[in-house]
Every structure is written in C-alpha cells, then in structure tokens.
Amino acid sequence: MTLIPCPECGRMVSPNADECPNCGAPIKELLAKQEIDTPVDNQRSVPVTSSNEPPLPQKEQAPEKAIVDKSEGEGLAHPQATPAKNAAINPPHQKTEKKKAPKGIILLIIGLLLLVGGVGFWFYYTNVYLPEKRDAEAPRYYVMAQNINMRSSPEFEADYNKIGSFPYGTEIIVYDSVKTGLKPYLYGKYAPRDAKGKVIKDKVVEGYLAYDYMATKADFFLLNSIFGNEDARKMLSESRYKKALLSYFKRNHYKGNISRDKMIEYGINPNATQSWQVFCRHEKATSNNVYRSRKYRKDSKYTDLAVIITNINSKERQLLYFVFDDDESFHLLTEQPAPYSGYMKDRTLKLKNTDNGGYYVDVEYE
Predict the structure, then answer these.
(1) Mean pLDDT computed over 263-280
(2) Per-residue pLDDT tens for 229-249?
C-alpha cells in the first residue's frame, strides 16, 4: 500500500486512515482540503517511499544558468527560463489581420472615380472630339481674290467688324454657307498649321467671308492649275476674271497642269484630258496674252477681258473674249484661234461684228 506523509507531523500514514496514529490529525479531511486549495497543475510530485524509510531530503535546485542571447549582442544575458517564460519574453509571431475598409467607403471611392471619369470624358467629348469631328467633316473653301477680309458679321461694306485679312489661296473651314440673297456669305474658321501640321491655336479665328470671293476645293485647285506662271495669276487677279475662265474650263472639260491623282484627291472631274494654261508677261509689258478694255459697252462698270490660253501639249492657242454685267456676272462673247506665237499689242484690239450677228476680235500681235 502506498503511504503518504501526514500533513501535520510528516509521519508516513495510509491515505485511507481517518486519523494520524502519531498526532491524531484528520488525514482524509486534510487531504480533501489540500486538493481543493491546490490546483492540480501546480502540485509538485512527492516521492513515494515505504513506511519503514524516512522521506528522502529534496535536493536543492541549482541556480538557473545565465544564457547568452547572441541575437541581442555579446554580454547580454537573461536567466534560463521555462517554455512559458520564454514565450512571455519572446512571444511567437502573430499574424495581424488587416482591417477591411467599410463597404460604404469603397462604394464612395468607386463613385468618385466614376464621376471623375465621366467629367473627363464629357470634357474630352465636347472640347476635343466634337470640334475635331466638326472640322474633319466641314468642307474646305479657298480665297480666290487677291485678298479677302473676314468679319464678325455679314456686313461687308462696314469697317468696324473686320477681324482678319487673308491672301489668295488661304484655306477656310466652312461651317455655314448662304449662297442666295443680296449678300451671300460663308461662315467658317481660319486655322493655320505649323511645319509639323499642328494647328497654331493663337492664330485661329472664326468669322464671315463674302461668298463671291471664295472657291470650293475642287474649283480652286482647277483654277490654280490654269495659271502657267505667276505673272498670269497677277494679270487675272480680279475674281470675276477667274470665275469666267474657270467656268469655261469646266464647261469644256479642260484642265490645267495637274495630275489625275491630284484631280481625284481634290474632287476635280477626272475625265478632263486636254491641258490648257495661261502664260503672261509682266503686267507692265506693252504686249501680253491678257487684254482689258471696254469695247463691248463703253459705259460698262467693268472692263472686258481678252485672254489667250495655250494647249501645253499641242501648243495650239485660243483667244477668249468675256464681257461683264454690273453685278459681275460674265458672258463668253466669242472665242477664236490665235497664232501659235506672239502677244496682243496694247491699244490695238477691236471688237467687230460678223455677218451672222456675232463678234470677232481683231488685234495685232507682237
């Protein structure tokens, strides 16, 4: 039978004894109380001996050795500790859970992003995309006169509304075209570009231009191909002369010096095969291929125009004679062959009647 020391006198007794035979202490009662007061985890095991042997003296515990913690550096030490103490000194790495943002904040951020994106798209659409689309789809017109004024309103006789002046050949992006009425006009934008093709924004201007001094892209490039040299363009600088000559070329399906590819690109009738041009001398020359006078009607507001055109392939020449009404509308009065060489001498041109009621031009050549 296993014996235990008496809680009072220390003598070995049976745990089932009611009283200690030595001191009379109530063994069962004391043992029951000891189990209640002392937690099982903290109870220290007691060596069991026989009833005939005195209890062995407990060895004194050796002092805890110092353990050098090399992770903290030389000379730093802490007492050897139990696993529980080590856990307290060096707690294990614990995973920290990231706090999730509240759902409302996430929705707010998404809403703000959508709002910013929507505003950005709207700004791009209205300020970049639509203007570029409008310009790309708008027709191009070109200045046909030597110079033309752009105005802030379609009042072309006024001086207060002038906002710009553009020379022959200037391209205008046209947004509105009014071809009828007493003062036909175009409304559009002048948008010059730099060497890299980028629009120079500080020079962009919008306004009104007189329709009669502008030409469509096809008409302008066809007209421009008719001038064989710069002197010819200067001699025919008036818009009414250019319109008359352009009308004659279109009616006869003629072209100037221009390739078929360019004609297709500019919208010119590609079926025109014969190439004719006007070649002139300096405007101060006393004989030339352009002659201006009032032979048909002495009281006419505008001078008549006699001009010689040359077939650049066959060298054949033709003399055309136009007259103009006071509203600048034109009429081809007559056309006739001209010599292969020579210029019309100044002050020698005469307009004569034919037997059938028509006209012919009598002029000397130099």
Answers:
(1) 93
(2) 999 999 999 999 999 999 999
185-195 pLDDT tens trace: 999 999 999 99
Q: Say how many domains are in the chain.
A: 2
pTM of the full structure: 0.66
Q: Which residue has the tokens 């002029």?
A: 363
What is the domain extent for residue 194? 136-216
Cβ neighbors of 170 (< 8 A, separation 6 or more) are 142, 143, 148, 190
| Residue 162 reports pLDDT greater than 50 | yes
Is the domain of 211 the same as that of 231? no
pLDDT tens readout for residues 48-79: 444 444 555 554 555 444 444 444 444 444 44
Same domain, 191 and 268: no
Find out whether 144 and 223 touch, Cβ atoms under 8 Å: yes
Do 312 and 231 share a structural domain?
yes
Written as six digits, the tokens of 110 are: 């998404």
**Residue 289 in contact with residue 281, Cβ under 8 Å?**
yes
Which two tokens mark 152? 């802030």
With respect to residue 19, please indicate whether it lies within any of the assigned structural domains: no
What are the tens digits of pLDDT across the range 105-129? 888 899 889 989 999 888 888 878 8
Q: Using an 8 Å Cβ cutoff, are 187 and 176 in contact?
A: yes
The total of other beta-carbon atoms located within 10 Å of residue 229's CB is 13
* Pair (188, 297) in one structural domain: no
Give domain status of residue 260, yes or no. Answer: yes
Q: Classify 362 as helix, strand or coil.
A: strand
Angle at 305 between CA 260 and CA 212, to 5 degrees: 65
The CATH number covering residue 141 comes to: 2.30.30.40
